[in-house]
Design goal:
Elements (H helix, E strand, L loop, with lengths): L7 H10 L3 H14 L12 H18 L1 H11 L3 H5 L6 H25 L2
């Protein structure tokens, strides 16, 4: 049964431990490109750098390209209810929380694909 990690660091650690970290990067790159928000994380990116760069990308989308941000969330299939529950008063914190939701959903896709292939 899939149990989502409770924070970004644990999620990335779990992905590494299950040898699925590279698949997670591939999935993120794929979905961002589907949303026409080209992002190309190199396979050599460290988990801490991935976390930082994803956070920065989401922050910029929220601030400058809100319609594209919403499209991205739709394409990745991030839970609308979870996003609505967030406090949007601080964009930095909001971008961090949304980055975690994105990683969580992408990790879920990778995990299921690996478990049931």
């Amino acid at each position: 049964m899939f149990i989502a990690p409770i924070n970004t660091d644990l999620l990335l650690l779990e992905a590494e431990n299950e040898a699925l970290y590279l698949k997670l990067i591939e999935q993120i790159n794929k979905d961002f490109n589907l949303a026409n928000e080209g992002i190309d994380f190199p396979m050599s990116i460290s988990p801490s750098e991935l976390k930082i760069q994803l956070h920065e990308k989401i922050y910029r989308l929220i601030q400058y390209k809100f319609a594209e941000y919403l499209n991205l969330l739709y394409i990745i299939d991030v839970s609308e209810d979870e996003v609505k529950k967030m406090d949007g008063s601080d964009l930095v914190i909001l971008a961090e929380q949304v980055s975690f939701l994105i990683l969580k959903r992408e990790w879920q896709k990778v995990w299921f694909r690996n478990k049931y292939r």
